[in-house]
UniProtKB/TrEMBL annotation:
Its main location: cytoplasm. It is found in: Cytoplasm; Endosome. It comes from the Eukaryota. GO terms for cellular component: endosome. Residues 868-883 have a biased composition (Polar residues). CDD domains: BRO1_Alix_like_1, V_Alix_like_1. Residues 567-594 form a coiled coil. This is Hydroxyproline-rich glycoprotein family protein, putative, expressed.
Amino acid sequence: MSSAANVMLAIHEKRTTPTDLYRPLRLYIASAYSEREAAAADDDLAAVRDLRADVEQPSLPDPSSLERRRDALLAYARALSLVEPRFPISSDRAHVHSLAFTWHDAFKTGKKASVASIHLEKAAVLFNLAAVYSQIALAADRATDVGIRTACGSFQSAAGAFAWMRESGVAAKAVAAGATTVDVTPECAAMLEKLMLAQAQECFFEKVIAGGKPPALCSKVARQVGIFYEEAYAALSAAPLSQHFDKTWVSHVQLKAAQFYADACYRCSLDLHEKEEIAQEIARLKIGISALADAKKVARGVAAPLLDSVNKLESNMKTNLERAMKENDRVYLMRVPDASSLGALPAASLVKPTSLAEVLDASKERLFSSLVPDGSMKALSKYTEMVDNIIRTQAEKLQQASEITRVRLKEMDLPDSILSLEGNITLPLDLKEDVEAVQISGGPAGLEAELQQLRDLSRVNQELLVQTEEMLQKEANEDAQFRTQFGSRWTRPQSSTLTKNIQDRLNLFASNLKTAGDSDSQIERGLKESYPLISILDRRPIESALPSISRPIMSLDGNEDAIVGALKQSLRQLESLGAQRAGLEDMLKEMKRKDDILPKLMAGVGSHDDLFKKEISKYDPVCAEIADNIVAQEQLLLQIQAQNEQFAAVFNLEDYKVARERCYKQIAAAVAKYRDIKKNINEGLNFYVTLQEAIGKIKQQCSDFIMTRNIQCREMIEDVQKKLAGFSFSSSSSQASMQRNTSVPPDQNSPSPPPPSSHAPHAQGPYGVPPGGDSRPGYSQPEQRPAYSQPYPPYGAPPQQPPYGAPSQQPPYGAPHPGHYQQPPHQQPPNHDYGQQAYPGGWRGQYYNPHQPQPQPQPPYPQPPYNAQGSYPPHQSSYYRPQ
């Protein structure tokens, strides 16, 4: 076989004509996208043009030139994968219609195909790539180990290129587009694939022969070589290849098939001779010799070295046959079986087509990356939807598993019962938040301080009301004194007539204060009665008020610790499964975030469905882990349920649960009662603060009224004294003086205290209801409040009437009547008693802030105490804030 070392076939490349890709592709970009995109793609277009120019150059036979040629073809093939999805090349006017590719047949160079289709270009490039691989294999020195490995690998790569043409549909698409040359048909690609595999397997045969391997192994390898050649010969003998290839090719393949079949018989006979199976040895030798004789009869034009190799093999087989027959005739005397009775020779395939998916993958190329056609975006959207469906489905499974765990553990009262046994008792989250809010606001212990604040405000309002009434009473007494002194000469209206409206308001305020005091008393009684209930809220931590599980007083077997330990271990395993689920969900999301198949879509290798199937499969391992996690959790929950039943029986959990629920209800009731009392106190504080402001305004009105009356009093005294002394005045002056005798009362439209709801931080019912009731919503339904809380009365003024019959055009009480004397604006009012402070002796409530940053001028009456910053936390109420 050494003489046949160089008797193998290489394939010549297809020839092409120069083609300019730059101009047609650029015109399409400018038309389909924009001129700016076309300008941006200039470098990529030039790169594709240069790659095509490299392919157009003929290759040289030396190994280094062949490798550069291979690399150029691979680069251009990847570029075509990026061009195909972006540039539709056809005769359609809307496509790249001015571009046609021309390629000559590799076996009949006189024939050529010129088609406006990128599929012909891709098929021709793949054909030439396979041809270059075959030339590299043929150029390798198979007498060395490196050379034989290079040859074998290159033949397999050539077979892989032809297989890619056939399996990816490139060849079929080229034929469908109008390619008329036979060399790019799927049938030719399949034949050449088998031929390259046969020669690759032949390289292995040469290696096992040179390595002195056993005859049985050599026979199997040789038989597989013959099978590949037989399949290639069958394809050459069928249409459309039967009339296309040169006869020497057909004879070569036919003779190679017979040679390696005969060689397999020869190697098998050597193995049979060692086993002394002479009869079968003789039969195998006869079959091989007959196959060689038949092949030599039809072989025409085959290479002389191949024919010499066949003749040498035939000679060796005949020599062995003569020896075997003599030994059988003299020694063994065995009957030689018929050829039909022998089984087929075993074969061992050591080669396969090398996949070119990796070297042809254009997903990492950057050519035309800014151009993304609508079809690719739709395909990407479809894939994204498939991935989203997987993520959503698996996430739902994970969430459902977590929810099942939560519900099952809650039904078994785990891990709360274990925590209670260890002293780590916890409240339900919502109840714990309610208790924390109560404790932050001061708790039950802080209610007494707020009640004291309520008492202080009530006393301040009462003092302000008394001071205002005393001011009016003092002015009325002075007026009565002068009226008695001067008799009929004292002609100005009586004070009681002018202050009737104000007195009515003050009486109403006094009534409201009395009713509010009753409500305060009811709140105090309610707090006192409820304090045993709500005092539990002062426990810190609140969990100290809860019952705990205690160990049994007597134990029969003393296995309580083992029961608890086993249950805790199972709970830890369940927690580990939950953490694993969270990690799996994060893993899926991270995989989706990194899953970008757009470059692979744009590479245009294979169909989208095949690509989607391949890419989606990478999510399968994670999905399998999720399924395993759910199954393991279900089994673990069953185990925990059995362990918990044993735990409950030992530690008497039923009594503990009853006591715990009772405590939960007590705490919830305490929170509700505390909130109710707190709400009533806040309403009371808001009532008193707003009422204090209203009384202060009335007091100021009274001060202004009394000042005006004092001025009138002095003028009338002077007038009466002049008359008694005998002075006479003109009638006009007298008339003007008499007009000034009329005093102006406070305006009936003076501001009345607003309802509490106008100052409250939120809408709420009134703090009290006057005896006559109130028609406003919420004021006439005191039964909605708790039994111990009596609403405070509103302090709104009754419907106002014009004072002492004055017409509606009468000026306000703060201004004198026309013709009356007016005090100059800069004149200070006399220092009467009605201007004294509202708090005798300088008393200030505890909410009054004694530290003022700057001394302020004192108004005629002290500012309401709530105008100063109080000492109470701002979260309790807002009544103390400046209005």
